[in-house]
Amino acid sequence: MAPHTLETLPIELLILVLLELPDRASLKAAVTASSSCHRAYVAARQDVLWCILQKQWGNLLDLSEAIIAVRSEGLWYAHHKEEATALLDTWRRSQEVNALILTPTARTNKPRSVEEIIKLFTLHKRLNFFLDDYSLYVPRPEWIEPAHWNELLPLQLSDVEKRRFLRAMCRLQIHANIFGTPERSLDPQAPPPVLNNWAVGSYYTENNVRTHAYRLFFGTMPPWEYHEMGCAWSYLQSKYTQVVTTIADDLTQLVRSELATSDSQLNDRIDLVPLHKILSKDQLPYSGFVQTLEHLENSQAIVSGLTSIGPDLLYRVLHSKGVDQRNLVLNNAHSHHPWIGHRVGIRPEEDALPMIYPADRHAIPNFEHFWSTLPPIERPNAGWRLDSVMPARPETEFEDALWLSLLNKEEWNWGYAFWDEVRLREWDAPLLETPWARQPEPGPLLLLPAPYYDTYTEVS
């Protein structure tokens, strides 16, 4: 009896073989080497790709988060309020939604189409890049000497630390897709950029739009997950700061060089020289906030504005070079960055916003015992807990035990909300010794906050 080959196996069996492949490289090798495998792949393309995608993500990210990040693209709150609200409501109720017998398009634990799976592969690739980069270049805690820090890098993150980081990055992308600044295209023939100015004007204030938007997003997560986002936010800013500084230095040298060979009288104010007089049209983006070097002086505002566009733009910036990178940055550089409100923290004493489902499960007495029953990814790390929760009796409600600063936390810079307790102790992190009782230091503006408000809109 002749031995079986791939070409002689029934298509149903070949599909089972394809479902066992570990990655897309193996899949490509199989379908290009065998016409029968190719036919099997065509017959079950979505199932095969979805199976491989799940293996690549493993248990490092709730795929509902990734799917919402993909589906939220283009749902600017100013123009798609109802659709964005419905998507965020599905996101916060994902566990109960996925437990129901619904059509695939309504669920968040499985993609709707092959096209959505391809987008999820792209998201996986980009988030993995940032995860690897973070382990290599995580900013140094100020109490650790530079030489010792260099010996510790690259950090070997635990699975829980990776999950905290990836969850935060995914949520920053969701936040950017719905509430952030739309990206400007480099194509001069492209339509003008959408203005996502949903938080501006008396209409939004009078109708509590900003408060409602805040609760739809940040109100659904416990406060430590917000600070995980803050740590990821600070990391993205550190990457943009390096890029913007390099661009500013290069442009300054270019302007100086051009002025040295001209009769210009502006040598003492090179920051006022219009860049279009120095650079040719093909070297400058057709639009953008930066028209002179003076506009680059407020680099922190520009970095904040760029970060508000989301991690996806930064990935493309870091993978561009020369003029392409410079134009991608300059075209999207601006000093205006819309946030959900301005300068107010998660739970200001006078205007507490109660957490809503599913975060409200933490709003109970004896919360420390409740946390002990949860998987590590669902409870706060030791750094946040010791820094933000006051010693309390078992009967004390969680919100009454919180100690939260209204300003951006300096601890975001070194990712304090990401790290496992064993790592914090290895680093001798000061916050383990001097927790909640220390007074908060004045710092930069909180960039992902709740709005000023007098009342709030209930979200059930």
Helix content: 40-55%
Number of strands: 0
Provide the β-strand percentage band.
under 5%
**What structural class is derived from the secondary structure elements?**
mainly alpha
Largest sheet: none
Could you give the distance between the termini? 67 Å
Shape: globular
User: What would the average pLDDT be, to the nearest integer?
Assistant: 83
SS element count, helices: 19
- Ranges with pLDDT <50 over ≥5 residues? 340-352, 437-460
Q: Taking Cα atoms only, what radius of gyration do you get, to the nearest Å?
A: 25 Å
Task: Outline the fold blueprint.
Blueprint: H1 11-19, H2 24-33, H3 35-43, H4 45-57, H5 63-71, H6 81-92, H7 94-99, H8 114-137, H9 146-152, H10 159-179, H11 202-206, H12 209-217, H13 223-260, H14 299-307, H15 311-318, H16 322-332, H17 367-372, H18 382-388, H19 421-426
What does this structure look like?
This protein has helices at residues 11-19, 24-33, 35-43, 45-57, 63-71, 81-92, 94-99, 114-137, 146-152, 159-179, 202-206, 209-217, 223-260, 299-307, 311-318, 322-332, 367-372, 382-388, 421-426. The chain is mostly helical. Among the domains are: 1-57, no CATH class; 242-280 and 289-332, no CATH class; 345-432, no CATH class. Helix 2 (24-33) crosses helix 3 and helix 13 (223-260) packs across helix 14. The longest helix is centred in the middle third of the chain and has 38 residues, at 223-260. The N and C termini lie far apart (67 Å). The model is unreliable at 340-352 and 437-460 (pLDDT under 50). This is F-box domain-containing protein. Residues 1-27 form the signal peptide. It comes from Penicillium chermesinum.
